[in-house]
UniProtKB/TrEMBL annotation:
GO terms for molecular function: nucleotidyltransferase activity. It comes from Rheinheimera tilapiae. The keyword Cell inner membrane does not apply. CDD domains: CMP-NeuAc_Synthase. This is Pseudaminic acid cytidylyltransferase.
Length: 234
């Protein structure tokens, strides 16, 4: 059974109650639930949360919340992997074993159903792949990054790259933090996500936005509003 799992804990610190705060008139979490449902990729869309209010919002958006996540997996230090593994193991114990598992973050309001469709298609097209995840290219060559040393002076991270032309440096990418697709066994075995057996599905820079501050939130709302008004720009 193809299953989407959306982690959404209640204890977000930087933006309190971020997962259910209204984003352009809809709870943030609802955007991810709707993208998963509308993609047609998944047989089930499940939200993993430790919070009763988040569980209610998730159900209203159309997701299932068949269990509450243990508090030990809802602190500031628990990574995504253990949360997804817990959900898979719970489903297996209920005789509902998932096959393809998609982890979709609750704070991905710019995610499109077609992104998930393309990711699932990539896995089918190449059986050697273990995971497909969303990524985005850096807008500036990271090889020419600068830093401040202990004395506060500016130094290049890679001095040998400073004289080089941008086009002569390899393109670099970062995790877009929107979704990760793979088989249940590979999740449970702790297989590395960022490795040669994974495929980075590139998303355009204007649809990638971390939402950790109020400024991030405002920018993401403005971006989504613009994209809704001008769909061809997606």
């Amino acid at each position: 059974m193809k299953t989407a799992i959306i982690p959404a804990r209640g204890g977000s610190k930087r933006i309190p109650r971020k997962n259910i705060r209204l984003f352009n008139g809809k709870p943030m979490l609802a955007w991810s639930v709707e993208a998963a449902l509308q993609s047609g990729v998944f047989d089930r869309v499940i939200v993993s949360t430790d919070d009763d209010e988040i569980a209610d919002v998730a159900r209203q958006a159309g997701a299932e919340v068949p269990f509450l996540r243990p508090k030990t997996l809802a602190d500031d230090f628990t990574g995504t992997g253990p949360v997804i593994t817990h959900a898979i193991q719970w489903l297996r114990e209920q005789q509902q074993p998932p096959s393809l598992v998609g982890c979709i973050y609750a704070t991905a309001p710019l995610l499109l159903p077609s992104d998930l469709q393309q990711a699932a298609a990539a896995l089918v097209a190449n059986p050697a792949l273990k995971f497909v995840f969303s990524g985005c290219r850096f807008s500036f060559p990271i090889q020419r990054a600068l830093y401040r040393n202990a004395q506060g002076q500016i130094e290049p991270v890679q001095p040998e790259s400073i004289p080089k032309r941008s086009q002569d440096l390899p393109e670099t990418f970062h995790d877009a933090g929107q979704f990760y697709l793979g088989q249940a066994d590979d999740w449970c075995n702790g297989l590395a996500m960022f490795a040669p057996h994974s495929f980075l599905q590139e998303l355009p820079q204007h649809r990638v936005q971390d939402i950790d501050t109020e400024a991030d939130w405002l920018r993401a709302e403005l971006l989504q509003t613009l994209l809704t008004q001008t769909p061809r720009s997606r």
